Structure formats: structure tokens, C-alpha cells
Amino acid sequence: MIYRVRHETIYDYTDPVSVSHHVLRLTPRDLTGQKCLDVKISVSPEPPIPAGTHKDYFGNPVTSFTLQEPHDRLTVSAASELEVLAVEPPGFSESPAWETVRDSLPADHSNDALNAYQFVFDSTRVAASPQLADYARESFPQGRP
Questions:
Q1: What's the pLDDT score for residue 108?
Q2: Per the confidence metrics, is the pTM higher than 0.90?
């Protein structure tokens, strides 16, 4: 099935904005069962330098641009065309054991290893503790998918 998706955001500013930097996440990702066939992003006023694109830390397409002229309104529009397939998700028992997934991560500094490594650190709200490790261990018996 083909989906056509439109998005529009309009900012009306009380006072003119002299310089502004923008980061957009309006391009759909290609995923299992979903393929982005086309995307057109338009910005008004038009940036003097064409928008740049890259993938963020998680693989999401990102568009960024800067406006360097005073403006009191900004309009960002995106029109996407997606192909969506009816894909049956795999059953839980068909996924590999958690140890297999853990051991498949590269030990080097590749993007996959760095992306996974971010989750080994304490957060601002939760610090690692033996009690949390004991709690998690119950949810991950050896060989569990």
C-alpha cells in the first residue's frame, strides 16, 4: 500500500528573527515493512544555503538549515510517499537468545558498538546498583529470546 503523508509547521514570530538554526526530523525511515519512496521538504523563507542532511545517532534522517535574514514567519512543509507492506512480526520465540545478541556486538569503535555502548552508563535519574542487577537478572535467564 502506498501512503502519501503531508506535514506543515508554521511559526509566526511576534518580532522579526534575525538568524535562526533549524533541525528537522521529517523524513520517514526505511524499516522492515516500510520504505520511503520520496520526500520533499520545503522551507519559506528559502534558506540562502541549501539544507544539509545526515543521519542522527539512531539512524534517523535529519535535515538542517540556517536562515540569516530577518523573518517574522517560518513555514516548513514535508510531503512523503511511503510504501508499507503487511509484514507479520516475528514471534518472540523466533528471536535469538539475548546472549547471542550481546556477543554479536563489535568490540571495536564501529557505529554499532558505540550506539549500543551508550546504554552502559548511569543516567541522571538511575545509577547502577547490585539490586537493579539482581532485578534484571530475573528477566534474562540464560537462553531467553
A1: 63
A2: no
